[in-house]
Specification:
Growth Hormone, Chain: A, 385 residues, mainly alpha, 18 helices
Length: 385
């Protein structure tokens, strides 16, 4: 049974931590309104957390596989709580802001990878995609709740209270994670030591031709996700919008419905085929955002939610399928590292492009980039487009 007590606990931890993480979806609006930051500055701040997480990928993967999931999740959530709370003390775009974002990025990578790896530990092999999808759905609910509440709190009480709430949510996640019960992995890891040699390292699994396409497409998905969530906000504000939470509400409503209603579709119909169709839609939504109007935010968010809700579980399951439990943490970490790397590189580069040529070209270029990744998915898995 997939929805066991440990699995439900995992969903609760994911939701609470997601509230803290999703608070920072409003960071572009905070920077634009509080510090009058332009596109390249917003891109630089947004990408800092992701770059930090990417650089820490080899270490985080090893930590997750060598230590208990509980200790990794609790540590990451506590660090995230400290960094979120410290944002209340930030008064300018200076080095402390970037340092906090770097620490936040590493803590997020620890918690997210620890939770998703925990979810795969609890799921049967035939339900990997569904388990990852439900885990993501719990986080996606937070994607809507935190920005909507955060905007209201910021308008009524100021931004420091927004960050204080984000810190509190991370503390609740850490407290819940203390209830995790899992089998010790030391004996299992020792028995699998021959698999964990250089010829079967996590990196060699990532580069395996049977799954490498999933990691390339993860980078493309990260690019699309990052551009949509980072630059749609200042673009909408420039066009006269006063609220941007409609984007997150549309995204979450559709993504959660997909995860709950179609959670097993990739496992049943084929993960490659679902990933291919979702990438096509992802690129289309990005291109359509070049014609943004403030009243389009919910619809564009819904389109993105449909694409991401189908894509991420299918790609993630492709990446981890057939990997032993002793190496899943590392492989999952590399998968998220690719997603974050695509997010960071694209947001940083597109911020410069937006400053010089405007926002519409950013969304068109991102859509084309996502479509280019389609070539890698069928080739990597022996399919033909």
């Amino acid at each position: 049974m997939l929805l066991s007590k440990p699995f439900v606990l995992m969903l609760c931890v994911q939701f609470c931590f997601g509230l803290s993480y999703s608070t920072f979806f409003l960071l572009p609006k905070f920077l634009a309104r509080a510090f009058h930051a332009n596109a390249d500055t917003i891109g630089a701040v947004a990408s800092t957390a992701l770059f930090a997480g990417v650089l820490a990928v080899p270490f985080i993967g090893a930590i997750i596989d060598r230590h208990s999931r509980r200790s990794v999740i609790v540590l990451g959530a506590l660090v995230n709580a400290l960094t979120a709370g410290a944002f209340a003390l930030v008064h300018s775009v200076a080095w402390p802001l970037f340092a906090l974002r770097a620490a936040s990025g590493i803590s997020y990578a620890l918690v997210f990878n620890g939770i998703v790896t925990w979810a795969t530990d609890l799921a049967p092999a035939k339900k990997l995609g569904q388990a990852i999808g439900l885990c993501g759905a719990a986080g996606m609910l937070a994607n809507a709740v935190a920005p909507a509440v955060g905007e209201a709190v910021a308008d009524s009480y100021g931004w420091p209270w927004v960050f204080a709430l984000g810190s509190a949510a991370a503390l609740v996640a850490a407290a819940l994670a203390l209830g995790i019960r899992e089998q010790r992995m030391l004996g299992h890891a020792a028995a699998a030591s021959s698999e964990n040699t250089a010829t079967h390292s996590a990196l060699s699994l990532v580069l395996d031709r049977r799954r490498a396409g999933a990691f390339v497409c993860s980078m493309a998905a990260g690019a699309g996700f990052g551009v949509m969530f980072t630059f749609t906000q200042p673009f909408a504000l420039l066009l006269g919008a006063s609220k941007v939470s409609g984007l997150f509400l549309g995204y979450t409503a559709c993504a959660v419905l997909v995860r709950l209603g179609l959670g097993s579709v990739a496992d049943r119909l084929g993960r490659q085929q679902i990933a291919f169709a979702a990438l096509v839609l992802y690129g289309l939504v990005a291109c359509m955002t070049s014609q943004l109007r403030p009243n389009y935010l919910f619809a564009l968010g819904a389109g993105m939610g449909l694409a991401h809700g189908l894509l991420y579980p299918a790609l993630n399951a492709l990446a981890v399928d057939g990997v032993s439990r002793a190496r899943r943490g590392a492989v999952m970490t590399y998968f998220l590292g690719c997603f974050n790397g695509g997010f960071a590189l694209c947001v940083l580069g597109m911020g410069l492009l937006a400053k010089s040529h405007g926002y519409p070209i950013v969304f068109l270029a991102t859509g084309l980039l996502i479509w280019c990744s389609l070539w890698f998915l069928p080739k990597a898995h022996g399919l033909r487009a």
